[in-house]
Amino acid sequence: MSTEDDTIQEKKKISLKTSDDEVFDLEEDVAMEFGTVKAFFGDDGVSRDMVMPIPNVHSKELTRIIDFCTKHLALKPKAEHEEAGKKELRKFYAEYLKDESTERIMELILAADYLHVNDLLDLLNQSVADRIKNKSVEYVRKLFGIESDFTPEEEAALREEYAWAFEGVDED
């Protein structure tokens, strides 16, 4: 005879340890959204009970990535088959990045790249592309904290030679 406790199986967990020494216990399906985790635990010799170190990821970024993967896993099947599901997924994407600074998005890009969370990486990269589309060189430099390595004379020569590239850019 089976009891109710026997029929409810506890979901398998995978533990990750961040660069700031926080340990996160993730449900296996969420953790397997991370290509790095999937490759690590895909090896038959690796016990799922061990804690996987992720030294290039801070807990702040991992928390946001887990949030993304959890919600994305829930919405993706519906989005593949229903227009309403696609709309809900697009709304989630917009909400996910709504209040994030460019600096924060860059930190998330580094973490998502390290963990190989490709759907999130695509979303983050598109967000950066949208932020710099039709912007001036000066705006992009300021946004990313990049100093020009051209002399004023070299920059003037480049602007003259490639004038077409500077046409139609938005005001900063």
UniProtKB/TrEMBL annotation:
Pathway: Protein modification; protein ubiquitination. Keywords: Ubl conjugation pathway. It comes from the Eukaryota. It holds the Pfam family Skp1. Residues 12-73 form the SKP1 component POZ domain. PANTHER family: SKP1 (PTHR11165). Part of a SCF (SKP1-cullin-F-box) protein ligase complex. Involved in ubiquitination and subsequent proteasomal degradation of target proteins. Together with CUL1, RBX1 and a F-box protein, it forms a SCF E3 ubiquitin ligase complex. The functional specificity of this complex depends on the type of F-box protein. In the SCF complex, it serves as an adapter that links the F-box protein to CUL1. Belongs to the SKP1 family. This is SKP1-like protein. It comes from Rubus argutus (Southern blackberry).
